[in-house]
């Protein structure tokens, strides 16, 4: 029984040492990864500053030309995306125009069907008697408008 206990103790002790070594290795690995990520961040920050035009004094001609090419490429990508968005908006607006044109045609046809009714004309239009006789074919140029300046006339 004593031998079994000793073997168990040696086994668990070996296992603890092994776990301690693996955790120390893992810590070292994490430290190395952290250092690598910090270096990458510094490089990215330096690159960002260069793209913004900050700290270009120590750059050689080749670096400046490379930055210029990258910026030109980025600008062309941005312009292409902008053009695509504008085209999509234009298509949406054209579709909306078609719908409104169709709706306008339907409403115009309804107005022609009911020529004798005053409600078929937009509110606020004052039509002369000669225009009323012609029906609903009134254009905005033929509408008589009145302009009142000052307080409205009193009602007595």
TrEMBL record:
Q: Where is the composition biased (Basic and acidic residues)?
A: 7-27
Limits of the K-box domain: 27-117
Annotated region (Disordered) at: 1-27, 115-156
Q: Name one GO molecular function term.
A: DNA-binding transcription factor activity
Can you list the GO cellular component terms from the UniProt entry?
nucleus
List all Polar residues biased stretches: 117-129
InterPro entries xref list: TF_Kbox (IPR002487)
Q: What is this protein called?
A: K-box domain-containing protein
Organism field: Trapa incisa
């Amino acid at each position: 029984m004593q031998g079994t206990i000793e073997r168990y103790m040696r086994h668990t002790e070996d296992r603890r040492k092994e776990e301690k070594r693996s955790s120390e290795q893992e810590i070292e690995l994490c430290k190395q990864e952290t250092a690598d990520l910090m270096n990458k961040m510094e490089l990215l920050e330096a690159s960002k500053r260069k793209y913004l035009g900050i700290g270009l004094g120590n750059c050689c001609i080749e670096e400046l030309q490379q930055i210029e090419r990258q910026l030109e490429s980025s600008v062309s990508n941005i312009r292409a995306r902008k053009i695509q968005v504008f085209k999509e908006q234009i298509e949406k607006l054209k579709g909306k125009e078609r719908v409104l044109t169709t709706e306008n045609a339907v409403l115009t046809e309804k107005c022609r069907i009911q020529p004798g009714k005053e409600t078929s004309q937009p509110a606020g239009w004052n039509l002369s008697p000669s225009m009323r006789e012609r029906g609903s074919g009134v254009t905005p140029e033929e509408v008589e408008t009145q302009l009142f300046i000052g307080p409205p006339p009193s009602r007595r």
